[in-house]
Design brief:
Helices cover about 55% and strands about 15% of the residues. It has about 200 residues and is of the alpha/beta class. Strands 2-3-1-4-5 form a 5-stranded parallel beta sheet, with helices on both faces. The longest helix is centred in the middle third of the chain and has 28 residues, at about 75-105.
Length: about 200
């Protein structure tokens, strides 16, 4: 089994690349999806976040108010570190569990979709690292135009992550994503051939 680390800055198109790799046959372990799972209503993870940040980070239905929590932590390195200390061990444990199941099911390629791979020094956990890359201006435009984020919030999210140069420094493969979806599909198909030798 080939263990692939996939990363890219917010708005880079990493989720699209992840989906395309799954269409080629990869088993995708999505850190963001798992991060939501481990802080779902009724979980020990959510209780730990509330213990750290207070009940004001909850919606009326008891679910985590991700937007409010994001405003609290992005731009404040100490608060972000406190959140990461709660959530990251839970995410890592669940990702290991999903990977073990993929191996048991005979998966040839397991892709770990990890937004903070560079930030957390995780390169050595993977056989190969793929970075989805685009200019910061492209990231910013996508966040504002496609996700409806305020420009200041988008800039804060980008600034809270590794720089483009830091991500590229850990890359074994780079997928450039500043063109069309067709261009991206071609790049992912070529990557799949390199990963699988087919």
């Amino acid at each position: 089994m080939l263990k692939v680390g996939l990363t890219g800055g917010i708005g880079s198109g990493k989720s699209t690349v992840s989906r395309l790799l799954a269409e080629h046959g990869a088993v995708v372990v999505d850190a963001d999806a798992i991060a939501r799972e481990v802080v779902a209503v009724g979980t020990p993870g959510l209780a730990a976040v509330v213990a750290e940040f207070g009940s004001e980070v909850l919606l009326p239905d008891g679910a985590l108010d991700r937007e409010r929590l994001g405003r609290l932590v992005f731009g404040d390195p100490a608060r972000l570190a406190a959140l990461n200390a709660v959530v990251h061990p839970l995410v890592a444990a669940r990702m290991d569990e999903v990977e073990r199941q993929a191996v048991a099911d005979g998966a040839a390629v397991v892709v770990h979709d990890v937004p903070l791979l560079a930030e957390n020094g995780l390169k050595d956990l993977y056989d190969t690292v793929v970075v989805v890359d685009c200019p910061v201006e492209t990231q910013l435009g996508r966040l504002v135009e496609q996700r409806g984020m305020a420009e200041a919030d988008a800039k804060a999210r980008i600034a809270a992550q590794a720089t483009r140069e830091q991500r590229l420094a850990v890359a074994d493969h780079v997928i450039r994503n500043d063109g069309s979806l067709t261009d991206l599909e071609r790049a992912v198909s070529a990557l799949w051939e390199r990963l699988t030798g087919s």
